[in-house]
Amino acid sequence: MEAKPYLQSIALQHDSIDSYDEYPFDIPAVRELDYLDFHPDVTFLVGENGSGKSTLIEAIALLLGFGPEGGTKNVQFRTSEDISPLSNYLTSSRSFKKPKDHFFLRAESFYNVATYMDDVGYLRGYGDKSLHARSHGEAFMAALTMKLSGRGLYILDEPEAALSPTRQMAAVSAIHQLVQDDSQFIIATHSPILLSYPNSRILLLDGTGISEVEYEDTEHFAITRHFLNNYERQLALLMDDPET
Ligand SMILES: Nc1ncnc2c1ncn2[C@@H]1O[C@H](COP(=O)(O)OP(=O)(O)OP(=O)(O)O)[C@@H](O)[C@H]1O
Ligand SMILES: [Mg+2]
Predict the structure, then answer these.
(1) Do 231 and 152 have their domain in common?
(2) Is the CB of 68 under 6 A from ligand 1?
(3) For the chain, what percent of residues have pLDDT higher than 70?
(4) Domain total for the chain?
(5) Atom of ligand 1 nearest to the CA of 47
(6) Helix (H) or strand (E) holding 141
(7) Whether residue 221 sits in one domain with residue 206
(8) Within a domain: 1
(9) What's the rounded mean pLDDT across residues 47-71?
(10) Which of 84, 141, 193, 227 has a beta carbon 3.0–4.6 Å from 168's, enabling a disulfide?
C-alpha cells in the first residue's frame, strides 16, 4: 500500500444540504461536487476568478484541522467571521500514514499569519527573522523553503501572488524537492509556470462543475502563450486601435 496521497479524496454529503441558493452551495463547482480524488504529488485547482477555488481549498484545510487564516495547525486564529460552512458537509478518505508536517498558505491572509508569528515569537523555521522584515515575495519564499520540512501535506492558495517569474520557477523546484521527500500538495493557482509541474492533476472549476484538464489545454497556458507571442496585436485589440 502506498503512503501517498495522505489525503486521498473528499466527498460532499448532499443529503445534509438544505438549499443550493446560498453561498457556498450556489457555486457550480460546489453544487456539482460528488467526490474528488487527489494526486499523490500535486493537485492543482484552476478556474476563473470567483469559480470557488478558495472556498473549496479553505473547506479542505478546515476539514484537515487547519485554522482558516492558514499557517501550521498551531495557528488557530481568525480575523473574519466569514468562514463558509462547507467543511462541515465534507468527508475525507485518508492514507493509513499521517503526514509529519502541515502548512496552509493563503495569499489573502499571509500578512496576518506573519503578524501572528511575530506576536507569539514563533520564528523557528523561518530563518529566525520576522516575516515582516522581508518583502512579500521573500517572506513567501521563506515560508516555502524554510518552513516546509517534507513528508508533509501542504495546501497553498495562489502561492504565486507575491512571486516574480524567476521565483515562481524556484517555487516549482522547491515543490519538486518536497514531493520527492514524500510530500503532497493541493494548490489553487493562476500561474502557468506553477501549473507546468508534471507530477500533477489539474482540476478545472467552472460553470459546469469540476473536471480534469491537461496543462496545454488550460486557458492559463494557451492564453499566456498566445498573448506573449502576439502581444503587439493583442494590445492593439485590447486598446481598440484600428490603425495597428
Ligand atoms: N463569504 C462569502 N459570502 C458570500 N459569497 C462569497 C463569500 N466568499 C466568496 N463568495 C463568493 O463565492 C464565489 C467563489 O469565491 P472564491 O473566493 O472561492 O473564488 P476563487 O475561485 O478563489 O477566485 P479568485 O481566483 O479570484 O481567488 C465568488 O462569486 C464570491 O463572490
Ligand atoms: Mg481565491
Answers:
(1) no
(2) no
(3) 81
(4) 2
(5) 21
(6) helix 136-142
(7) no
(8) no
(9) 88
(10) 193
Bigger pLDDT: 162 or 91? 91
pLDDT at 235: 94
Atom of ligand 1 nearest to the CA of 58: 18
Q: Say how many Å lie between the CA of residue 50 and the centre of ligand 1.
A: 5
Domain that holds residue 234: 216-244
pTM confidence score: 0.90
**Residue 190 Cα: closest atom of ligand 1:** 25
Contacts of 168 (CB under 8 A, 6+ apart): 160, 191, 193, 194
Mean pLDDT of 110-123: 59
Ligand 2: distance of its center to the CA of 106 in Å?
9
Nearest to 92 by CA among 150, 189, 156, 7: 7
C-alpha cell at 94: 485518508
C-alpha cell at 173: 523546484
Cβ proximity of 107 and 114 under 8 Å? no
Element (H, E) at 56: helix 53-63
Report yes or no on 2 lying in a domain: no
- The number of residues making up the chain comes to 244
Indicate whether residue 81 lines ligand 1 (CB < 6 A): no
